[in-house]
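Shipment paperwork, digital attachment
Item: protein structure file
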Amino acid sequence: MNPAMNPAMNPVVNPVVKELYFDEVEVGARGVSPPRTVTEADIDTFADLTGDHTPVHTDEAYARTTPFGTRVAHGLLGLSLADGLKSRSDLRFVPGMSLGWTWDFTGPIKINDTVQVRFHVASARLSRSRAGWGILVLPAEMRNQHGEVVQRGEHRLMIPCRPGFAPAAAGDAP
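Attachment content:
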């Protein structure tokens, strides 16, 4: 087992939260992630992993000369954290396929900022191309410890319906 997913080693993972199939999801449902502090090591590791060693992320002396005044996390590190935090929230879905993100970087994420993601189900529809699957649209915001929105956007996620789920035909509705 991955140590990060072991509840004994990672207290923010709550194995009691039920993962929902598409047909169990309600439009309007809301999720809140656990908080996560972004460290200097996170930024350095992301720079090494991606090869993006832009000085505003990796060189404190240089970063002090920028409008940020200090090193900041890569925007895509924030998006990656948002996806991971969403999957550890109090609203979880059975694993599916990400169809894409529309995402804006609205403010800096600085070393030792603590971020949290809030999202909701804006819409849900059955897939037209894959029977037994549905598509969710999930607007989300990432806020720092000061309540400032540092990133926001929308995730389109396709997840399966429960095995044996049969949607009602249009003529079956009352």
